[in-house]
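Dear support,

We are seeing what looks like truncated structure output for some complexes. This example has two components. We would appreciate it if you could run it in full and send us the complete token output so we can diff it against ours.
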Amino acid sequence: MKPRAVRVFAPATISNLGPGFDVIGIAVHTPGDEVLAKRQTATGLTFSVETLQPDVPRNAESNVAARVASLMLEEFKPSFGIRMVLHKLMPIGSGLGSSAASSVAAAAAVNALLPTPLKKIDLLPFALEGERIASGAPHADNVAPCLLGGACLIRSYDPLDVVPIPVEGSIVWTIVHPHIAIRTQEARRILPTTVPLSTAVHQWGNIGGLTLGLATGNARLVGTCTEDVIVEPVRAKLIPGFHEVKNSALRAGAMGCSISGSGPSMFAIASSTASARSVGAEMARTFSHIANLTSDVYVSRVNRRGVRILKTKQE
Amino acid sequence: MKPRAVRVFAPATISNLGPGFDVIGIAVHTPGDEVLAKRQTATGLTFSVETLQPDVPRNAESNVAARVASLMLEEFKPSFGIRMVLHKLMPIGSGLGSSAASSVAAAAAVNALLPTPLKKIDLLPFALEGERIASGAPHADNVAPCLLGGACLIRSYDPLDVVPIPVEGSIVWTIVHPHIAIRTQEARRILPTTVPLSTAVHQWGNIGGLTLGLATGNARLVGTCTEDVIVEPVRAKLIPGFHEVKNSALRAGAMGCSISGSGPSMFAIASSTASARSVGAEMARTFSHIANLTSDVYVSRVNRRGVRILKTKQE
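Here is the complete output from our reference environment:
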């Protein structure tokens, strides 16, 4: 029996994790995007979007989910077509891997309907191509953990080499999303093109420690190594109240705090759910107090599963 | 009963491990330096050196072991003095942490004679100060693994933060020391002061992978991540035949190969002792063939113990 229709969930991700700009990302449990895909008799893609956000591209040419689905249909040429609905639940420009979630959800949904589905890892090139279209640069540190779950190290982009970091579950992540949008391309434009060697050395000490802390479930080490001396100082300027919010997180017991993706969302590290919740409340309060911004707060352990099929209808 | 005399062994170290310039080092089992220390009635230090190497500083003002011993005597002011003999077995300017081994051996020897010895980790500042005198820069990625054993990540130099990386024993290290000397200060002078951000990102992918590979005993990952796109390309020029030797190591089955410390020694990674031996033989043959250099070859797993007391005489 082949599935006739599927509903897929793809989770948010924290990329550019601390010092790991472009190389380390993790998946969380919430928020995320959903895609509904059904076989249709006519070949090709019929695409629509359900969302409350006015800025989400509606047409198949400019929406990442549709682009990914079309790429897969062109590649595998099934005898049927697909009718796809993207339930765009995640805010765009949030720093939470919103476009990666749409790309991955679309790839997994089309894949589930194919006569011979690929392995998850083999969906990576399709989802990355969607990301490239959306942002001009393929953010594998969003796409890979969204697809595969857990924490992923992008060891190399050329050739692409994704190394899963085994993650112990003792670390709890707080994400606070203040209600402003930052364009990834703008956040990338302001980065320096060169860095002092001594600063790079400082950064790679933290990258080693962050990797080790994730693999050993050491929340304190992960927190300490979340220090980012290269990208955070530049991008902090794009987030109103960044320093006050970060300080409020640390005062409330967070072991580390930095920018998620290219912002404006910020993440913090705690060793218990209770602590992560009070850290999140304090950060949201500070965003409101200092910058007059409302926020959403999410508390989650690492999502080890990544994209998943919520529901299947058989033929 | 207090020890009256001790003989201490401090091992060689591979610092600047692959991409981990200034931040990752490991201890091996051989070669190493030895220090003999005895209590003497007169306070202060009586110092001598036994070595076949003409370039080793003989006097207490310029020898790192004597400097470290003097620092400790000044700090702890025991009621006795110390007569110390440094058996300088390691070649200087080899890239194997020779000065770190002398510093650490001296610190551990004096410590063993003190009425209330310190913990190993508390000897780090004394041994580092010796390194600072010897090379102008304290190489904690040599000193820390030499002292503590295993693999060490220097997460931060200011403040100094040493993170032990738990090491699985399945990786075997080949070291080949060709018989030329490179001055650390010269090798440091030729480094770039800035690096492109994109190159730094490539380097930190490898640093994350190297750390993970060490912690999980994954020889293939460690080998792949030994790639160093910043320091190796510059320092390779100081080692005659570097590229040919590296290629010969890889052809002989090494999973990775790079410069140990600031050279001229090179290290390679294998997953068995037999493989590591044939890699070493091939590297030495290439040094001889291409650059007319004789070499010493060492094959070792990680030394998890670090500096150790070989022998104690009680009062």
